[in-house]
Amino acid sequence: MFIGEGLLKFFGISIDSFRVGGGILLLLMAIAMMNAKQPKTKQTDEESKIAEEKETIGVVPLAIPLLSGPGAISSVILYAEKSKSIIDNAALGIVIFIVALIVWLVLRAAPKISKAIGRIGINIFVRIMGLIMTAIGVEFIAHGLMGLFPGLK
Asked: Burial level of 26, CB count in 10 A (0-12/13-18/19+)?
């Protein structure tokens, strides 16, 4: 939040180029979320059970790159760039803290949530969130392209 704009200036990257790049990244992540399918190979019941256990173990390590990876960093830098006053920066910092707290609570409750909504519920939720991320990515790209090519407005 505090060093993103300076880092972009250091590398000579315009905020509009970063918007397009971050939007493409979010879009790719969202498409992957919406297309996540189980392979159609035949498995025995025992193999399916082992695979489910491995997926459960992998939930937290796989979630970390999505939570603090390039997509999240791009989003924070872009929203921080829009912040023009100390109050805006403070509000963004508070929002980041609240989101981190909510994520921590959800990750702590993940096993219970997983049992409650089941595999189908998780797949539905992932696809809905993928759709929302797609819209955010498209917005980033659209705003970036309008900034790079003012004639598009």
From this structure: buried
